[in-house]
Amino acid sequence: MDRLPQLRAAAGLGPLPVSALVTSTPPPESAKNFSLPEAPVTITFKEPPSEIDQDTMETLAAFYKDAAEVQGCVSTIRTVMQELQQRHSENMQTVDEARSKVLRGEIDDLSRQTSDTAKAAKDKLDAMSKNTAKLKETPDSIAANSAIIRIEENQYTHLVLKLTVAMAEYQRHQAANEAFYKAQTQRQIKIKYTNPDGSAIDDATAAQLAEQVLENNTTSYIFQQSKDVLASIIETRNDIYRIEQSMRDLNQLFNDLAFLVNEQGELMDVILANVQQSTRYVEKGREELKKARKYQKKSRKKLICLIVCVCIVIALFVVVGVLAGTLKVH
C-alpha cells in the first residue's frame, strides 16, 4: 500500500499530478544479462621512469657494453694463446722446411692478433675509467651516482685483474718458447757440428756458439761446416727474435696494467683497512659483551645475596616475634 498520498493529505498538500508519478520501467535486455565479476579487477598504472632513472639505466647499459667487449678480448686472448702454443709445439718438432715456414707465418699472425687484442682491451679499460671519473667530478655528482660509481669500480677492478692474469700467462708461455728455441739451437750446434779436430762440441762451446748466432755473428769457422744447418739455426734464431719482439711490445702494456692495478690496489688497501678496522671493532665489541656478561653475572649474584639477606632478616624478625609472643603467654 502506497502511503505517500496519506502523508501529503495530512500535510495539507494535494495529490501528485499524473505527470509527476514515477513509474518503474523494466531494465533493458543488456542490463538483465549483466553480472558482477566474481573477483575484483585491479587496474594498475605503471609510471614511466624518471629522468634520473633513465640516465642511470643508460649509464650502466653503456658501461656493461664496454665490460662485455673487454671480456670478449680476454676470451679471444686465451683462445689465440692456445692456438699459438699448438703452432709453436708443431714448429719445434717438424723437420719439413716448407711446413715450418707456414707455421712461422701463422705464429706471427697469432702473436700480432694477441698484441692488438690486448691493446684494444687496455684502451677500452682506459675509456671506462675516464667515464667513471666524470661521475666523481663534483661532490653532488658523487652523492647522486654513488651506487653507479661503486658498481663500475668493482667491475673495472675485476676486468683489469682478468686481463693482467691472461697477459701474464701469455708472457710465461712466450718465455718458455724462447727458452726451448735457445736450447734447440744449442742441440743443433752440438749434434751437427764438430771441433776442428773432429771431436764433439761440449755444452759450454755449444752455448757460446748459440749466443754468437743470437748476436747475428755467424762468422765462426765451425758454422762453415754445413750451410744447411746454419740456415736452420738462423731460422730458429729468427723465431727467438720474433718472440722477444712480441714481449717487448707487451712490455708497455704490462707497465700500463701495472699502473692500473696499482691504482686499484690503493682502493683495495682502503677496503682492506676498513675491513681490518671493522674486525677490530667486532673484537672490541666482543670484549665489551664479555665484560657486560661478567657484570651481569656479578649483578645477579649481588641481587641474589641481597634477597637472601632480606629473607634472613625477615626470618629473624619472625622468629623473634614468635619467641616474644611465647614468653608473654608463659
Summarize the structure.
This protein has 330 residues and is an all-alpha fold. It has helices at residues 4-10, 29-32, 51-93, 97-134, 139-144, 146-192, 203-214, 227-329.
Q: Care to describe what's here?
A:
The protein is mainly alpha-helical and about 325 residues long. It has a domain of about 210 residues: Methane Monooxygenase Hydroxylase, Chain G, domain 1 (Up-down Bundle), CATH 1.20.58.70. Helix content is about 80%, strand content about 0%. The chain has 8 helices and no strands. Helix 4 runs antiparallel to helix 6. It starts with a helix and ends with a helix. About 0% of the residues have low confidence.
Low-confidence stretches: 19-24
Order of helices and strands: HHHHHHHH
Largest sheet, if any?
A: none
**What's the Cα radius of gyration?**
46 Å
Report the principal-axis shape: elongated
CATH architecture of one domain: Up-down Bundle
Give me the number of helical elements: 8
Percent of residues in helices comes to: over 70%
Number of strands: 0
The CA-CA distance between the termini, in Å, is: 98 Å
| Overall pLDDT metric | 76
Query: What is CATH's topology name of one domain?
Result: Methane Monooxygenase Hydroxylase, Chain G, domain 1
Name of the CATH class of one domain: Mainly Alpha
Strand percentage lies at under 5%
Question: By helix and strand content, what is the structural category?
Answer: mainly alpha
Membrane topology: Single-pass type IV membrane protein
GO molecular function, one term: SNAP receptor activity
Keywords: Coiled coil, Membrane, Transmembrane, Transmembrane helix
Organism: Leptomonas pyrrhocoris (Firebug parasite)
